[in-house]
Design brief:
This protein has 379 residues and is of the alpha/beta class. The protein has helices spanning 20-34, 66-69, 72-85, 130-146, 155-165, 210-220, 235-243, 258-266, 282-289, 300-306, 316-324, 329-345, 349-364; strands at 5-9, 38-44, 53-54, 57-62, 92-96, 113-117, 149-152, 170-171, 198-201, 226-230, 249-253, 270-273, 294-297, 311-313.
């Protein structure tokens, strides 16, 4: 039984120094290596990690001109990755997202199974102009049409893609590891006290409803500070930090130390998840894995994950009401326990890796690789 040769592209690279897709690629690639497969991840030439291997995963660096060309540089980077993949003889090429990738579908390696994780409905993002939204819808259609297999990370996305393109995606969500070793001393450098602050961790984008959360928080007049962690140096981040200069609001640049993030989540009094575009968001799963009390934007994607075990807000006034309405401790504890059980079952990382491996093996017409313990190997 043969192992697979797998390439993963569509991210800025691993280890994660950017966001959700990068973190997902980091975990999945290592898990697949541990299952006995040969895995390569494409890294941007701008990525700070410069070694050729990371935890058994091969790193392939490709020229990235985003620092010089802006968004257009992403198309160049994806072209460079795809062009390189044509000479690698991969069994599977996993495309994480389609935004600047699917326009090159005609250049995807022909004798490789191209699997596309369709991410969220990118064209719904409010930051985009009408022409850009039109392009993103077109790019989505190209990915759906030309993918050997599509992956939807939520039932809502699976339903949407099938309805739109009459092609059945495979539902595989993201995963998260249960946080087991809290250490309150980690959070003190952020000028907060255990269970006496509210928390937001998100990319600074309008569709993540960070301004709505800020406005609702300010209207509540609550004494706890609001800690906001994200890429505050981008355009929208700069707008928020300059507009809301309040002593009770603490803005912090993105953090990539998993232990720090998990402790900040664990010791928060209330975690706000404002994401409104897309499916199963990795940062939401991580909040659940850290036993957070969660208030989430009211949409079908968040409800599919959290169900009844969260507060939901459609407006800033509802955020104020949530903050100022005491929740019985027994209810909060029940929510945390149920959400943690979901992490340990539905969203367990090993289960997600198994699902990806099975899909890849089936798509390649191969059987699962069996790795015998050393003591059981017959020479």
């Amino acid at each position: 039984m043969q192992k697979l040769k797998i390439g993963i592209l569509g991210t800025r690279g691993i280890p994660n120094h950017y966001g959700g897709f990068e973190q997902f690629a980091e975990h999945l690639s290592v898990d697949l290596v541990q299952k006995g497969h040969e895995v390569s991840v494409y890294n941007s030439s701008l990525h700070p990690f410069m070694e050729n291997e990371w935890k058994g995963v091969q790193i392939i660096r490709c020229k990235d001109m985003e620092d010089k060309l802006g968004t257009a540089g992403q198309f160049v980077y994806d072209w460079n990755c795809i062009n390189d993949s044509r000479k690698r003889n991969f069994d599977v090429l996993l495309h994480l997202g389609y935004t600047s990738d699917s326009v090159w579908h005609w250049h995807w390696p022909k004798h490789t199974v191209n699997i596309v994780n369709m991410d969220g409905m990118e064209w719904q993002r409010t930051k985009y102009s009408k022409p850009v939204k039109f392009f993103l819808k077109w790019a989505e259609s190209l990915a759906a049409k030309h993918a050997g297999k599509m992956i939807a990370d939520s039932p809502g996305m699976q339903e949407y893609l099938f309805s739109k393109y009459k092609k059945e995606p495979t539902f595989i969500p993201y995963g998260a590891e249960t946080f087991e070793n809290p250490d309150s001393s980690v959070i003190f450098k952020y000028s907060v006290l255990p269970h006496q602050y509210f928390l937001v961790i998100a990319r600074m984008e309008p569709e993540n409803n960070i301004e709505m959360i800020i406005q609702g928080y300010l209207a509540s007049h609550h004494q706890f500070p609001l800690l906001i962690i994200g890429n505050i140096t981008n355009k929208y981040g700069k707008y928020l930090t300059s507009t809301y200069k309040q002593p009770s609001i603490h803005f912090t640049e993105a953090i990539y130390d998993q232990a720090e993030l998990d402790n900040l989540r664990y010791f928060s009094a209330l975690y706000f998840h404002g994401h409104s575009v897309g499916g199963t968001n990795p940062s939401l799963l991580e909040a659940m894995a850290c036993r957070c009390r969660i208030a989430a934007h009211n949409n079908r994607f968040n409800r599919a994950v959290l169900q009844q075990e969260a507060d939901y807000f459609p407006t800033s006034s509802e955020i104020s009401r949530i903050i100022n309405t005491p929740k019985p401790a027994i209810v909060v504890q029940q929510w945390k326990e149920i959400n943690l059980e979901r992490i340990n079952t539905i969203y367990a990382p090993e289960r997600i890796a198994d699902a990806y491996e099975n899909l890849m093996l089936q798509a390649c017409g191969k059987k699962k690789l069996v790795i015998l313990p050393a003591a059981a190997v017959v020479v």
